[in-house]
Amino acid sequence: MMFGIILFGFFMKSISADGVADVVLSCDLVEEGVGLGGMGGGALFSRTPATLVLKDVPVGSDESLETLTPFVPPSVPDPELLLFEVKVSSPEIPKADVLLHADCNQQEVLCEISQYSPRGLPDSTGFFMVSLSVDGVDFSTSLILQTLPVEQNSSTLVQSKLGLPLSGSGTLLTEVIFLVFSHIKSVSAPLKADVLLNCGFRQQEVPLDQEVGVEWRLQHRGKGQKVLEMKTKLDGSEGSPVVLGQRKGSSLDAALLLHEGDASMALSRLQVEDEGTYICTISVGNFHAQQVVQLLISQAPQVSLSEGKKDSNSAQTLSCHCSNYYPLDVQMEWFALPPTASEPEPFIDQGSLSSHRQHGDGTFSLSSHLSVPPTVPAGTKITCRVSHLTLDTPLQVTTEVKSPEPDSYWWVLGFLVITALFLYQMI
Question: Could you tell me which residue ranges the Ig-like domain spans (predicted)?
Fold first, then answer.
């Protein structure tokens, strides 16, 4: 019993900050309805403005509490308003401090609230799911809220839309009982690299259940597949965790899951087919929530230049080869720097492109062929410039136009004439 208490201690971390503050967020209550959702019909989603008040968010020691104002409810409670009041000290929301200054930093906070139905509970009223993310910041979390009991009397107001009793200040009193979070929204990695997709969870000090289930799924181009699944007891009983890995090289650290609530998945030797949207679903008892992480595969191109011979009467062909890159989009440009100029300029004729070629590992190759006319003076530098999203600066390969070689046709003709005269004299 003592072991269980120690093990679950991480779900209720003590607040070591100098103080706490309130965070007030503008949200939408999202409800699903039935109607004509387009030509084929379907579900419609209605949105009602709501306010989410996160109470007692820990504030760092370097933060001035004088600049943070506590939440003040309306002087006259209004049953039409949707005011969700949430105490977040247990379980604590990781990195919730980024919400304190999102508005000052001109960062948009996405906040959506919807009613939630726990699996297997006959009475599921009073549960809500809150999805929070901050634009431009690696902060994303899904909270499951449970309404707190309110002592009711003849003066107790009832929220008109939800039918739930309000506190004396006109708020819906709730608490966070379970949350799933991720510290990254997207990650880019090269081929054959290893990557860690972050996902974790927290629950109250009194655990909702002793068993936790983690499932990672990959969704890409309309197709979904299970990548990894783990089920285990949080108290470490009943043997080893059950792990089902569908993708070779995928893994999840059971020890970190048990002791830190870390459900991050590692993928080794990435391939192009690993790219897509990964959905991390964590289930504890009757409750489950998700986080989404985008994985982008990238591979920088290799660039080379080949050139054909040039004579005095014909053009010279230059070929720029861009190979083994991913994703597909790439830009190839030709520039010329004559001996009398100081800055290169785009070549008048940008040449012709070959068709894209895809290799067995999913990467692509492309070639650009440029015909350099004989009128281009010797000493001119011709540059092929390649731009790709994996490159901070474009790659360049350069060659210099040389003086034309003697025309091989006249050399051959002269040789034949001399040979014929010599044979004629011999006769």
Answer: 197-298, 301-398
Count CB neighbours of 270 within 10 A. 20
Please tell me the distance from the alpha carbon of residue 96 to that of residue 91, in angstroms, as a whole number. 12
Question: What would the pLDDT profile of 241-264 be if each residue is shown by its tens digit?
Answer: 777 778 889 999 988 998 899 999
The contacts of residue 102 (CB under 8 Å, 6+ apart) are 108, 109, 134, 137
Mean pLDDT value across residues 10-35? 67
With a cut of 80, say whether residue 410 has pLDDT above it.
Answer: no
Q: 57 and 158 in one domain? A: yes
What's the confidence (pLDDT) of residue 310? 66
State yes or no: pLDDT of 117 exceeds 80: yes
**Of 147, 181, 215, which closes a domain?**
181
pLDDT per residue as tens digits for the range 36-73: 444 444 558 899 999 999 988 877 666 665 656 678 88
- CA 62, CA 154: separation in Å to the nearest integer? 46
Same domain (yes/no): 209, 289 = yes
Give me the mean pLDDT over the 121-145 stretch. Answer: 90
Q: Specify the pLDDT at position 102.
A: 81
The number of domains in the chain is 3
Same-domain check for residues 127 and 166 = yes
> Higher pLDDT residue, 415 or 301?
301
pTM of the predicted protein model: 0.81
Residue 6, C-beta contacts closer than 8 angstroms, at least 6 positions apart: none
> In angstroms, rounded to a whole number, what is the distance separating the alpha carbons of residues 324 and 330?
11
Half-sphere exposure of 228 toward its Cβ, with a 13 Å CA cutoff? 23
CB atoms closer than 10 angstroms to residue 304: 12
Give yes or no: residues 74 and 176 share one domain. yes
Burial of 176 (0-12, 13-18, 19+ CB in 10 A): buried
What are the structure tokens assigned to 346, written together? Answer: 């785009």
Residue 318 is assigned to a structural domain of this protein: yes
Instruction: Look at residue 33 and give its three-state secondary structure.
Output: strand
Q: How far apart are CA 250 and CA 270, in angstroms?
A: 10
Closest CA to 300 of 221, 391, 209: 391
Whole domain around residue 344: which residue ranges? Answer: 302-400
Which whole-number Å values give the CA distances from 408 to 306, 374, 404, in the listed order?
21, 15, 11
Mapping DSSP to helix (H, G, I), strand (E, B) and coil, where does residue 18 land? coil
Residue type, 33: G
In this prediction, residue 402 carries a pLDDT of: 84
The whole-angstrom separation of Cα 386 and Cα 401 is 20
210 is written with which tokens?
């002793």
| Residue entry with tokens 């540059």 | 383
